Amino acid sequence: MNAQQIYLSIVGLLYLGLGIWCSVSPQETSTKVGFQLVGGSGRSEFLTVYGGLEFGIGLLLLLPLVRSTATEPVMIGCILIHGSLVAFRTAGFLMFADIGSMTVKLAVGEWVILLAGLAAWWFRPISN
User: Fold this and answer.
1) Rounded Cα–Cα distance for residues 125 and 32 (Å)
2) What global pTM score does this model have?
3) 41, 2 in Cβ contact below 8 A?
4) How high is the mean pLDDT of the chain?
5) Is 125 helix (H, G, I), strand (E, B) or coil?
C-alpha cells in the first residue's frame, strides 16, 4: 500500500463514520452545525446529503484498496472535492457571522485533508 492509498483509506473511513453518525443521530449532528430539521423533507434531505453522500464518498475513497489502478483518479477526485469544500467554506466564513465551533472544526479538518492530499499527490512516485 502506498502513501496515497493510506491517505485515501484514512479519509474514506472518516467519511464512512461521519455518514453513519449523521444517519443514526441526525438531530445531534444537524444541531452541531446549525441546521434545523424541519418536517420530513428536512430530515430526508439531511439523511440523503449528510448520510448517503458522505457514506458514498467514503466508499469511493476506499476503492483503491480493491482496485489499485483507481488510486490516481480517486486521489484527484478527493483533491477536487476538498478544494471545493475549502473554497465554499472560506466564502461562507467571509459572508456570514456567528460561525459555530463545530463548523470551525470542520473547516480545519477540510484544510488538513486538502493539504495532506496535495502533499500525498505531489510526492507520489511517478512511473513511466
Assistant:
1) 40
2) 0.89
3) no
4) 93
5) coil
